[in-house]
Amino acid sequence: MVKVEKYYLPPTRLIPNSPQPLLRYKGLLAEPSERRPEVINDRLERNYWTTQWIFRYGPSQPSHYHSRIHEAMAVLSGRATIRFGVADMDPDLDKNTWGNAKETGGIEVTANIGDVFIIPAGVAHKTFDTSPSAEFSLLTPGDGHGIPGPNVGEALASVELSGFTMMGAYPKNCGHWDFSTGVEGVGDFEASWSVPRPEKDPFLGDLQDGIVGQWNAIKIPDRKALFANL
Fold it and tell me: According to the UniProt entry, where is the signal peptide (predicted)?
């Protein structure tokens, strides 16, 4: 049985977040054989999602969101904290990670090996406090916007995992991810809110436990009501 955690994140002054819930499938990929990148890729392909990267994360990174595309992230190794839903308020990573230089609100989740996160377009996320400690690095060929070459499975099978690593995937034929930090989309949050729901969940396919059942038909929120208490 899939353990699904749901988080509804309202917009902030700088971050659109989403009417759809952030989903966490805790320990979904419990077995080592399930976490092999090439095996995950086959599963994603069957559900019309595309692997674009495997990153090894450093101690911290800027908070950001993807304005026009939904994202799935699977934890392949290590442990980290992921902060969802708020923007950094200072470019200094020490201040915005460990201090108070961030928007109020949001949530922090401990990401463990085997966890899967389904992140709606517009939802901010920031990975930090990684263990084992390592330098940030892209582990897959290319620039992080897709795996080049005729044999993606072979390229993924050759990746050597170390530190805290995640694998990222996006719905097929929906383009590549952007990196919005909370300035670019102000005044145009509806563009993120209106990104269509994918046909299938990247890991659960047609199961109602996944986005097919958990994400409702898009209904653009009333902007005035959402921002009334900000």
Answer: none
